[in-house]
Design goal:
The complex is a heterodimer of chains A (374) and B (443). Chain A is 35% helix and 18% strand. Chain A is built from 14 helices and 14 strands. A 7-stranded mixed sheet of chain A has the order 3-2-4-5-7-6-12, sandwiched between helices. In chain A, strands 9-11-10-13-14 form a 5-stranded mixed sheet, with helices on both faces. The longest helix of chain A is centred in the C-terminal third of the chain and has 17 residues. The mean pLDDT of chain A is 94. Chain B is of the alpha/beta class and 443 residues long. Helix content of chain B is 36%, strand content 7%. The longest helix of chain B has 26 residues. The chains are: A alpha/beta (374), B alpha/beta (443). At the A-B interface, strand 1, helix 4, helix 5 and helix 6 of A face helix 5, helix 6 and helix 12 of B.
Chain lengths: 374, 443
């Protein structure tokens, strides 16, 4: 075989046709793209001009409102300058200036520590942690510093102007390190407020409330809702109350408590329960994880006598335990059945096995069925 | 930390310039490259020099590792151990200022003696002395304004002393009595005062460092002509927060002076077990910071360095690292007996041969700013001042029991109202077991 001249041989470094471009089978596509709930848009909670926004856009809107009206406000974290890996800060650096919306080095303990300092100086600090799964290097700064700043100085110093935002929760394929819901760790820390919204209108109002609150707040944004949750959101600034749960559906038979994405799952459970069991469910979105609205939940359970708390985070040590314990203390004589918790299993968040891990509507439905038949 | 396997459908794939726009109903904006500057290709040179984004350097064909021990950073000083000026940098401060420096250093020393003793007698629960490091506090503070916010670690009481934080307030905090600003919430020596520009001390080490950077950044944005000075020990410099702080300060151009008190020990751990570098100063240039090492026992050197550092920060909006070499003459705290890990001879050397107070006194005596008679009079007076404040502080009641619940949040949330009620109901029945007379009354 004759050797071809070198010039005739060109080693192609990229394939001419991308072998991956052939589409996966329709069945695989469906499986990959399906989610365990369908988002139901809600009406705007306040009057005024609205715009159709998804959850990340509602966050951008809240941040933009803040930067517009509060000249001290700054936003910082990894990759926020170009718009953020979830696009929550798109356009903000261009509009408000690179010194107000800027990247920090890749260091969560630095991000939160720096944020505390900005707040101590009296400026509004909005820190982004890229994924809630990476908040732990900053845990010391949150637990030992931010949450205790006011207490230890007798109010002489505080970091109330600090808000930390982080995407959290199951997303379908996030596995161990892109799916976590760490709210329980922070619920255990007096001095800091932990908040989780269920959709765009809620996200904007609660985030603005956190930013304006004079206590350090942690705001976990359910990342799977960033694109899939879409509704008409007021364009102007508005706040929703912190420390207050919301009853979304009234019912007589069983109380369902959740937050974030899980509220959407429980919404479908209410429907299933009605159709298949004739059970009338009351759905509560906790919204503020700590300090949480004991009265609203206990009033509901006093009426229904049955409680299910559902969250993605692992069951042991999860926030459902705190709620269960408090409710049984106040509503013991009203309970018709033991309090039920439908949560993630006590494993790290799995990749392939995610559909079996999450507290999906069937596991929650089964919990309702068991309570109704107790 | 940020591996985003498979999340490309979710995240903006900024690094893949040529993908088609993400087609969802809500996101019709064209997929732009993020480029604050002109396209990168225009910046590349034609020649054979490195074009790496990560470092400006030149090529070498020699395989040669850099030897870390090749150079050390010298120690700047103005006077020698005997208090004689060497070199040309005597700041020539006003006699009034020099005397005040001396009075405050010795007053601090006197307060330390009495408070240490009071812990030994069971009157306060805990104390930390500042023996041997007084110049690092006074020299620095004298070069700053009260508006320059100071973050400390726990061995910087002299800064407060310089800023006229009253003796009684030091002691109120140590006693945790009803006049303690902190409402009795913290252990002794965790001082703080917004009025005096001193951020409240917390026990975890180095946590104040990135916070100080945040304050400096806010000062810069607000165009204040103030700096932040952040003290920390050489032990604390090993914490991750120290690295985070210095890197942030440098990359975000913050007007902050990092002031390391390198006193030879972190409790029992000598510097030989803390780092292998040329002290903490060697790290400054690594972060891109102007750096200086100074004799921390030389109050004039501390003054000069702090003044110069502040000027650099304000002029350039850039951080500065100062490593003040000194020696911890006292034990780490009242919970420590340092004879367990160091010799008495070593401590004696510093106490007798290189003490910041002695050095300044010698300077003052040699320059007719002070006399032995004045020394005797002041010694007595200082002690009286301290004892007077001490007696007052000791006599005060403890804070109200309800302050246990104060300032957790800005306002008292419902769960804490309920818990407070629960505690007071308990005290109605069991109050006799709780020495309630020692506490300030409610209402």
């Amino acid at each position: 075989m004759a050797l071809l001249p070198a010039a005739a041989i060109s080693l192609r470094l990229t394939p001419r046709v991308n072998p991956l471009r052939r589409k996966s089978s329709p069945r695989q596509q469906t499986l990959r793209n399906s989610s365990h709930f369908t988002y139901v848009p809600e009406a705007p909670p306040v009057p005024g001009e609205t715009q159709r926004m998804n959850l990340f856009q509602s966050v951008t809107s809240a941040l933009s409102n803040t930067l517009e009206t509060d000249p001290t406000a700054i936003i910082f974290g990894e990759d926020v300058a170009f718009g953020g890996v979830f696009r929550c800060t798109v356009g903000l650096a261009a509009k408000y200036g690179k010194e107000r919306v800027f990247n920090t080095p890749l260091c969560e303990q630095g991000i939160v520590g720096f944020g505390i300092g900005v707040a101590v100086a009296g400026s509004t600090a909005i820190a982004e942690i890229q994924f809630a799964d990476y908040i732990y290097p900053a845990f010391d700064q949150v637990v030992n510093e931010a949450s205790k700043y006011r207490y230890r100085s007798g109010g002489d110093f505080d970091c109330g102007r600090l808000t930390i935002r982080a995407p959290s929760g199951a997303v379908g394929h996030g596995a161990l390190y892109h799916s976590q819901s760490p709210e329980a760790f922070f619920a255990h820390v007096p001095g800091v407020r932990t908040v989780v919204p269920r959709g765009p209108c809620q996200a904007k109002g609660l985030l603005l409330a956190c930013i304006q609150d004079d206590n350090p707040c942690i705001f976990f944004e359910p990342k799977v809702l960033y694109r899939s949750a879409v509704e008409d959101v007021p364009v102007e600034s508005y706040t929703l109350p912190l420390g207050k749960a919301e009853v979304l559906i009234e019912g007589r038979d069983v109380t369902l408590v959740g937050w974030g994405t899980q509220v959407q799952v429980l919404r479908e459970v209410c429907q299933l329960a009605e159709e298949r069991l004739g059970a009338d469910c009351e759905l509560i979105d906790l919204r503020t994880i700590a300090p949480w609205d004991v009265d609203t939940v206990c009033n509901s359970v006093s009426k229904t006598g049955r409680l299910i708390v559902a969250h993605e985070a692992p069951i042991t040590g999860g926030h459902a335990g705190e709620i269960s314990s408090t409710v049984q203390q106040h509503c013991f004589l009203n309970l018709e059945a033991p309090i039920s918790r439908v949560c993630g299993w006590d494993t790290p968040f799995p990749h392939i096995h995610e559909p079996f891990y999450i507290p999906d509507k069937w596991r929650c439905f089964e919990a309702v069925r068991k309570l109704m038949n107790f | 930390m940020v591996l985003i396997h498979g999340l490309h459908r979710f995240a903006l794939p900024s690094s893949r310039w040529r993908l088609s726009p993400i087609a969802t109903p809500m996101c019709r904006q064209p997929h732009r490259r993020y480029s604050p500057e002109p396209p990168v290709a225009e910046h590349y040179a034609d020649d054979d020099t490195p074009q790496f984004l990560g470092a400006r350097a030149s090529f070498t064909s020699k395989l040669e590792f850099i030897d870390p021990s090749s150079s050390t950073i010298p120690v700047y000083r103005v006077m020698n151990r005997k208090g004689e000026i060497v070199g040309d940098d005597d700041p020539k401060l006003k006699p009034k200022t020099i005397i005040e420096m001396y009075l405050k250093m010795t007053l601090l020393n006197q307060m330390d003696r009495i408070m240490y003793e009071s812990q030994r007698q069971g009157r306060i629960s805990f104390y930390m002395t500042n023996y041997g490091e007084e110049a690092t506090h006074i020299g620095t503070a004298a070069a700053l304004n009260t508006d320059d916010l100071i973050f400390g670690q726990y061995r910087e009481a002299g800064v407060l002393m310089w800023r006229d934080y009253p003796l009684e307030m030091f002691m109120d905090q140590c006693y945790g009595n009803k006049d303690d600003l902190g409402q009795g919430h913290q252990m002794p020596v965790h001082y703080g005062s917004a009025r005096h520009g001193f951020a409240t001390i917390s026990s975890p080490l180095a946590t104040q460092m990135p916070q100080a950077v945040g304050v400096a950044y806010a000062y810069k944005l607000a165009k204040k002509s103030n700096v932040v000075v952040c003290f920390f020990g050489e032990g604390a410099s090993s914490e991750g927060d120290a690295h985070a702080a210095m890197n942030f300060a440098a990359t975000l151009d913050c007007p902050i002076v990092f002031l390391c008190r390198n006193n030879g020990y972190a409790i029992s751990t000598p510097t030989s077990e803390q780092y292998r570098s040329d002290g903490v100063a060697a790290r400054g240039p690594a972060y891109g910071m102007q750096t200086l090492r100074v004799d921390g026992n030389d109050v004039f050197a501390m003054y000069n360095v702090s003044r110069a550092a502040k000027e650099i920060c304000l002029r350039e909006n850039k951080p500065v690292l100062v490593e003040a070499m000194t020696y911890r003459i006292g034990h780490h705290s009242t919970s420590d007996d340092s004879s367990a890990y160091r010799s008495v001879d070593e401590v004696s050397y510093w106490d007798q041969t290189d003490h910041p107070i002695s050095r300044l006194r010698n300077y003052m005596l040699n320059n007719q700013l002070w006399s032995k008679d004045q020394e005797e009079v002041w010694k007595k007076k200082a002690r009286e001042k301290v004892m007077k404040a001490f007696a007052k502080s000791e006599a005060k009641r403890k804070p109200k029991v309800s302050h246990l619940f104060s300032n957790v949040y800005k306002e008292l949330p419902e769960n804490l109202e309920a818990q407070k009620s629960e505690l007071f109901e308990h005290l109605q029945v069991y109050g006799e077991h709780y020495n309630l007379d020692l506490y300030d009354k409610e209402g």
